[in-house]
Amino acid sequence: MAKKILIAYTTNAGSTQEVAETIGETLSQDGVQADVCRIKDVGDVSTYDAVVVGGPMIMGWHKTTLNFLRKHQRDLSQVPVAYFLTAMRLTKTSDTDLGTVSIYQDPALAKEPENGEKLSFKERYATVGSYLRPAFKRAPLVKPVSAGFFAGKLDYTKLNVFQMLFVMLIIGAQPGDLRNWEAIREWASSLRPALLAS
Q: What are the residue ranges spanned by the domains of the chain?
């Protein structure tokens, strides 16, 4: 019987959906069925052999994503799970307090800190650990095999006022489409062995 993988995502303005679809296309080879679904449309996750959960960083990892992890953590703890996050800023650090999760950082996104000895507030906020720890706290039973961090797409006209102020003042991101499709496909391909392990 064919393996079934769920790619469950949320999106703020549509660009994360395109990332999820690309991950689904990459995973759905060699008889694997990859279902790409918006989190709000996902009912039962227990019928899947593996699950990929993703969403954008909007004042933290999108609340819908964190709520999904909490709601389904018992089922998700029984199968291989991976996370993906889209962001406009990521500080490259060697954060070692992340358990066994393998971290993939889009080279177009991850930037070296200006001062390696002391991170600025923006740099500290945009670290892998800062982004992932809320998910670990919200759904401690889920032990993801990998987390992929990818550059996103920013269009100020798609944000509400609070989101726009946060992105401008705290993140300091400039509008544009920075998505690196090659990196997204590379990460999705690298996931196959872990997600399809019996």
A: 4-196
Q: Where are the alpha helices (DSSP H) in the chain?
A: 15-27, 63-76, 121-125, 128-138, 161-166, 181-196
- Smallest CA-to-CA distance from 179 within 18, 12, 1 is with 18
For position 160, what pLDDT does the model report? Answer: 62
Write out the CATH class of domain 4-196. alpha beta
**65-101 b/e with 16+ CB inside 10 Å = b?**
bbebbbebbebbeebbbbbbbbbbbbbbbeeeeeeeb
Q: Taking the complete model, does pTM exceed 0.85, yes or no?
A: yes
Residue written as token pair 């930037």: 111
